[in-house]
């Protein structure tokens, strides 16, 4: 039944509608920033319910939960922890169903290509399953990754349901602080890529070339002639999870050296590679008996552009010169700020945090003061339209996952000392065609040149504030008028429906037709006015 399109859409939409209604009731009773413990309890309850339903329905919901588990800009840490625990493990399919997919894509019987295929999957997840086999052409043992039956149709159905959910969310306050359409596009892009195994093949070959001369990192071979959109064939790897400490002790593998190798190579990916492995959890990072690290599963890949890395460098330099306007501009260049973000509020929050750090005695700091500063920053992120772009969400996920592995392997590892040479080399390479001292001088010069503008802004502030209040009053009055019209239209439409039904029951077809026409026109008009209200609410103040 869970494969039926209408059933899945109904369950997903009603589930999210219930979540939205629960949060709406809470926000109606509590002002923003108050009763945070109760709000967090509600969010944890929602996350646990979602996790339960995702494991039952499978399909997109599991992947969506994993996608949202990296969105620290949307959810508190406790909710992210619940979503992180969403295990991508589902009951396996029968070999007969997978055999049909493999033979359709290969255009021949499985036995013509491989021998000794495992009767059941070695591993099974929401999108694909893995079988072991031996290639007849060269006798090499391989892993065959094949999509689950009907998964593409199930994912498409779930995306249709999510479009309805996004439409509901656009009528909430979340629409003001989050670019929901962008979030939906990111979700489609990321999860859609995992449905095309040729994309994973391309990513795997990219990293294979990157590490072809690296003695401590290994990427499995891929057999391109047998890879399709739904089937991926790669070298079978003997190894175990990198966090298996008993295995490391049994094979006398130096844990500190292993941690250093993992950190340095992850840093190379994040700072220099352009592309990086976005899901390096212990199941995708193996270690072999000789201490060599093996990276698997390149379905989820992040990427940073040269422009992004230069923007990050400019932000770091702006922190050195305390140029807060440049920091905010850098965040905007990196797509962290939505068009209607209040840059002045964001600048003040950054300045407050930096000033607090520079002027405080960190050894005798008041814990409550730290909590107050962090609370102010968190409130700013929640209230201002600040959104984490997908590529940087992946960047954060990859970094935090690697750090978690390092803490298991070598709890006393000095990451700062290891990172210094790499970061210095990155800064030198990024700025090799630029004179850093000229950059710093230019930064201070820009601040001096901006001084007359700041004075003019300060003198003009009372006038701008009066105009802002006038626009705000006019907008509120306009929206209240539209809401009354919308309520009236909806009431007329709702009342006309039972009248139309009465006409049908009494065989009074003129009454039925007129009432039905009135109901349709009234409800359509109510919907039109509702869209007009949303459009007015989304318009920035001039």
TrEMBL record:
The chain crosses the membrane at residues 6-24, 507-526. The keyword Transmembrane helix applies. Keywords: Membrane, Transmembrane, Transmembrane helix. The keyword RNA-binding does not apply. Residues 116-454 form the Protein kinase domain. It holds the Pfam family ABC1. Belongs to the protein kinase superfamily. ADCK protein kinase family. It comes from Exiguobacterium sibiricum (strain DSM 17290 / CCUG 55495 / CIP 109462 / JCM 13490 / 255-15). This is ABC-1 domain protein. One of its GO terms (molecular function) is protein kinase activity.
């Amino acid at each position: 039944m869970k494969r039926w399109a209408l059933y899945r859409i109904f369950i997903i939409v009603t589930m999210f509608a219930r979540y939205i209604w629960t949060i709406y009731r809470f926000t109606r009773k509590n002002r923003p920033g108050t009763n945070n413990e109760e709000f967090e309890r509600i969010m944890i309850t929602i996350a646990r319910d979602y996790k339960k339903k995702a494991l039952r329905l499978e399909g997109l919901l599991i992947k969506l939960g994993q996608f949202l588990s990296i969105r620290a800009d949307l959810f508190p840490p406790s909710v992210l922890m619940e979503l992180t625990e969403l295990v991508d493990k589902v009951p396996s399919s029968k070999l007969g169903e997978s055999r049909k997919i493999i033979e359709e894509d290969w255009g021949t019987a499985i036995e013509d290509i491989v021998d000794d295929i495992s009767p059941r999957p070695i591993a099974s997840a929401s999108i694909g399953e893995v079988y072991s086999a031996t290639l007849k052409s060269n006798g090499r043992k391989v892993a065959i990754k094949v999509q689950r039956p009907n998964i593409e149709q199930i994912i498409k159905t779930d995306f249709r349901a999510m479009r309805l959910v996004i439409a509901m969310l656009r009528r909430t306050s979340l629409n003001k602080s989050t670019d929901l359409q962008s979030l939906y596009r990111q979700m489609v892009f990321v999860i859609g890529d995992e449905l095309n195994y040729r994309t994973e093949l391309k990513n795997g070959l990219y990293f294979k070339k990157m590490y072809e001369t690296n003695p401590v990192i290994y990427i499995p071979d891929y057999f391109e002639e047998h890879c399709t959109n739904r089937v991926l064939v790669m070298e079978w790897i003997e190894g175990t999870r990198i966090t298996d400490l008993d295995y490391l002790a049994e094979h006398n593998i130096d844990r500190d050296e292993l941690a250093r190798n993992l950190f340095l190579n992850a840093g190379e990916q994040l700072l220099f590679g352009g592309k990086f492995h976005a899901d390096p959890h212990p199941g995708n990072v193996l270690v072999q008996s000789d201490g060599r690290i093996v990276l698997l599963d390149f379905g989820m890949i992040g990427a940073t552009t040269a422009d992004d890395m230069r923007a990050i460098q400019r932000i770091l330099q702006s922190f050195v010169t305390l140029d807060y306007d440049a920091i905010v501009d850098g965040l905007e260049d990196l797509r962290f700020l939505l068009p209607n973000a209040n840059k002045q509020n964001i600048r003040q929050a950054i300045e407050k945090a930096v000033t607090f750090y520079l002027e405080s005695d960190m050894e005798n700091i008041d814990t409550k003061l730290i909590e107050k500063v962090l609370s102010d920053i968190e409130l700013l992120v929640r209230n201002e339209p600040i959104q984490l772009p997908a590529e940087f969400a992946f960047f954060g996920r990859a970094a935090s996952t690697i750090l978690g592995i390092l803490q298991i392997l070598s709890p006393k590892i000095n990451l700062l000392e290891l990172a210094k040479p790499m970061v210095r080399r990155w800064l030198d390479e990024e700025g090799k065609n630029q004179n850093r001292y000229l950059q710093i001088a230019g930064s201070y010069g820009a601040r001096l040149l901006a001084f007359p503008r700041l004075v003019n802004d300060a003198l003009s502030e009372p006038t701008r504030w009066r105009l802002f209040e006038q626009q705000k009053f006019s907008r509120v009055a306009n929206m209240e008028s539209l809401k009354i019209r919308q309520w009236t239209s909806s009431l007329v439409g709702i009342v006309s429906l039972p009248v139309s039904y009465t006409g049908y029951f009494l065989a009074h077809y003129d009454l039925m037709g007129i009432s039905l026409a009135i109901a349709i026109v009234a409800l359509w008009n109510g919907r039109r006015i509702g869209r007009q209200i949303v459009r007015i609410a989304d318009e920035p103040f001039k």
